[in-house]
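Give me structure tokens for this 57-residue protein.
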Amino acid sequence: MSKTIKDNMLSSEIMKALENYADDISDIVEKDANEIGKKATEELKQISPKRSKKRIL
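Here you go.
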């Protein structure tokens, strides 16, 4: 017995799968971007010049 799928059902299932994929990728990119941003901030703080207590006018 073969199963058949109507065109609109197939396109609906493909759209659901693509939306889930897009959501997953978006979450991964957001997580990675935050992690990279934190690492970059830490590195920049380490190499940035430090303020001295003396003010130069």
